Amino acid sequence: MINLNKAKVAVIGSGLIGRAWAIVFARAGVEVKIFDQSKEALNECLSLIKALLEDKEKFGLLSEEVSEILARIYPVETLEEACAGVVLVQENIKETVEAKLEIFAKLDRLTPEDAILASSTSWLPTSLFTEKLKGRSRCMVAHPTNPPYLIPLVEVSPAPWTSQQAVDRAMAFYAAIKQEPVLVKKEIHGFLLNRVQGAVLNEMLNLYEEGYASSADLDKVMKYGLGLRWSFMGPFETIDLNAPAGVTDYAARYGQTYADVSKTQKDNSWDASVIKRIEDERRKVLDQEKINERSRWRDNRLMALMKHQQDQPK
Ligand SMILES: NC(=O)c1ccc[n+]([C@@H]2O[C@H](COP(=O)([O-])OP(=O)(O)OC[C@H]3O[C@@H](n4cnc5c(N)ncnc54)[C@H](O)[C@@H]3O)[C@@H](O)[C@H]2O)c1
Hints:
Elements: E1 8-12, H1 16-27, E2 31-35, H2 39-58, H3 66-70, E3 73-75, H4 79-83, E4 88-91, H5 97-110, E5 116-119, H6 127-130, E6 139-144, E7 153-158, H7 164-176, E8 180-183, H8 193-209, H9 215-230, H10 235-241, H11 247-264, H12 272-285, H13 291-310
Parallel strand pairs: 1-2, 1-4, 2-3, 4-5, 5-6, 7-8
Antiparallel strand pairs: 6-7
Helix pairs in contact: 1-2, 10-11
Bound molecules: nicotinamide-adenine-dinucleotide (NAD).
């Protein structure tokens, strides 16, 4: 059993994702040391985190006062201070192999030997930046979905040399802080979520490019169709329920058709002229200056959806 009230973690990088992780850890009762190499980023992080927490409070998504959660987050000015006595480090610095190699070498030296070292990287496999480390058996990717304080999925993706014990401890820790960890059993580019998202975008781009539908109608396929079910159950559970006797029955009825259709599906090069046409269609419904405003609207919708899901019986 993990005692979260006694646990201490380090959040390295106080940008978009680092700030969001700080909320996730602190709202679970964990003490957070947050470090950024930019003094400016570090100085402004608490006020930015406070504004995010206040938004969550408005939607009834906090079980404590904003000030109580904020009081567990300590910006610190050195990496040494951030790493002292931690059980886990969540690294959120820039997305290059060189930067990850450098920071992981430092983290390996500065943290207690049994601390988990986890990277939020969106695309880089653990083995690209941990191979030479003494403590490589405790390193892994723990890729969040933006923003992790609203979307709970964490993809835990170890390297071949990561120990089972470290993976088990990380999975248990993320579950204890109320995220939903999934295990990527073998390293693969893009982990799981971005590969699935890529497959959907690939098909949408092909359907658009070949003139089957407008970008707005293709978005509606998700918004008014698939997305409604997929917000609370996955595609495998969906097909299990879409034939009277389950998955095998579904495959017997429709499997061959899907297999035939898959032969007509192909890759897509994200051609600039096609992207430009989609951009033009999007700008007719949303001015570029209004993208930030619309992003806030999206986050509020997400919070309302989270509140609804939180209130459902398990
Ligand atoms: N933005 C997303 O949607 C998203 C989603 C999931 C994962 N990620 C991953 O999270 C990581 C961070 O992304 P972000 O969007 O928060 O970037 P960001 O640019 O908002 O923040 C990065 C921060 O790291 C700091 N930094 C850079 N090098 C550093 C170093 N050596 N030591 C300490 N601080 C350092 C920068 O000053 C900056 O404040 C990336 O690996 C990214 O792939 C991003």
